[in-house]
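Can't paste images in this forum, so I'm doing it all in text. The chain is below; anyone willing to post the predicted structure tokens underneath?
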Amino acid sequence: MIQFRRLVAALFFLLPVSLAAQSDSGYITGGGDVNAIHAAEEFRIGIHAYNRYAFNEAILSFERALSFRPGEAIIMDWLGKAYYRSGLENTALRQWRAAAEVYGRNSGTGMIVNNRIETVTNRRLLLPVANDEVRYIESGRYPGRYENQVLYRQPTAVLPHSDGSAWVVAYGSNEIVKIDVNGVIRDRKRGPINGFDRPYDLVRGLGGRLYLSEFRGGRVSILNANGDWQGYIGSKGLGPGMLVGPQNLAVDEDGYLYVVDYGNQRIVKFDPDGVFVLSFGLSSIDFPGFRAPAGIAARNSRIYAADSTAKCIYVFDPNGNYLGILVDDLLGPESLRFLSDGRLLTADTNRILLIDVDSAIVRELGVAGNARARIVGADMDTNGNVLAANFAAGEVSVLTRFDDLASGLFMQIERIYAEEFPMVTVELKVEDRLRRPIVGLDELNFFLSEGGREASEQRFFTPAYRFDRFDVSVLVERSPQTAGLRDDLSAALRDITGALGSNGNMVSIVSAGEQPQRERFENAVDSAARGQSAQYNNRWRFDLGLRLAATDLLPGEKKRSVLYVGTGRLGALAFEQYSLSEMAAYLANNGIIFNAVLIGGGPVSEEIRYLCRETGGKALSLYRPQGIREMVENIALSPTGVYFIRYKSSLPTNFGRAWLPVEAEVYLMERSGRDSSGYFPPLE
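Text version of the structure:
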């Protein structure tokens, strides 16, 4: 930790800090003439508006400041930030480019602004490309040994967690260990009194329950969400529901558990409570039988099972009926894991493959270790890295997209809280180049400085991704179509309210009529959902309603979502004032998920699907058998890359009138990111 801070501090001392080296006004160049004074006052007003999420007010103040001091770099920089948070990314980029020219491209602040320009520009070009050909390369390792100390032995599987950490199954040391993003072991579980007996694979079942196969024990251990042992499924033997050398595991959408019974060359299926259902995979008229069953995965009523000797992946239905071969001519497939997009991540000797189960197209993502490496298990973590359990090397390899490694991390200082000056709290957001949040960081990953010197008394607060509290704002469509579906609107609001539980909070209900408005809903959710007859007309405004609903969420919890309730078919005025891309950027740049609850049963517009896709949300029918509860509850589980660090400022305040600079750097393995900002302390 000390060495890292010294290294980063050295980097900062080499960079010119433009904010700290300006005129007597502290941040506006050109002395203390009347225009500079007026610009400084408008700039101060803009900063305060920005910090209370009034981005439109901030834009107006920064524009007025520029009218007094045209070409002032710091004003253009902050004007760009306000436009960015407002979703107007093209305008933000223009302001940042102008600011970068004035700062100087080789200055410290100029390099930060240029990196911001490059990241946002590339992201806007790359986001629509979901299936690119970028390779993954090794960016780090979670070693099983440190000097003469053994940390764990012979990893066979990894199970990522939503906080960025991952459970690693250590076959050789009879345990599972939880490792964070920095490679630090945070927890270690060895099972009941008699311990685990050669654990092999770990999967997550319904309700967070975990299943752990024990190869030599001939059984599956049931664990709770924290990894504590609860009981057993199966026993060693040849009969129905018995196991010999159980290896890989899979759980389907209904919670049924599939166990690769390696010694009996079959697959055994159990219900969620561990009751034996059936077994399949022996030789039959249409199926040659398993020779060395390995990885298994389940999705959409299909069971995919690899055979490392036959070098192929077979397909079955949930009843064990053989359906054919997905792919063959592999090197020696082992683990199979489905990604969120429905593609199959496959460990094949030392290769990591990505397989499209619809087209059977196979793409090599990357290679872990050398040709002698044996990757037994692999999965993708919350931050988009592939974690590969290298059994032969006794370590877990971390593979990262080449472009992500080259471009680094995108960090922004979101807000500075200075009400308790000299104690200052900095709110930071860390993302990758595709706007995906980076979770799991801690105090080891951050460095703060002010005026080129390390900030004193730094204290790292609990990051936002660990909170399970969340806010929602409901946007109700007031079109002529929903006028006849008021009972459904009411039912949707009741379902949403019921799913909030003790952790969720409904901030507002917004009627998207011709003039969107907030509804009063205290103890009257039903009437707020139904609205007034006059509100329903063809001139209903989706964009203005969505903007209002999203704005209501800004001051609250960092996990938040707009829940649109409507037909999914937007009217002619849907994007009259704000374009679709601007609305998507406004939501995404402020960490707001767009979810859609659909009524009426008609087709859903591509615009609705686009907003869901760009913000990590879903579009679900109110009438689906499972309901919408899971969609609402999942908001609490959504990843967020927001962090809080508190420090004590040592800078002179000029009685609260000085502009005080703050710089921040984040570092994770081979990637880093920087940002600079500033604030006004309270007036004395």
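The chain has 14 helices and 42 strands. Residues 1-26, 126-131 have pLDDT under 50 and may be disordered.
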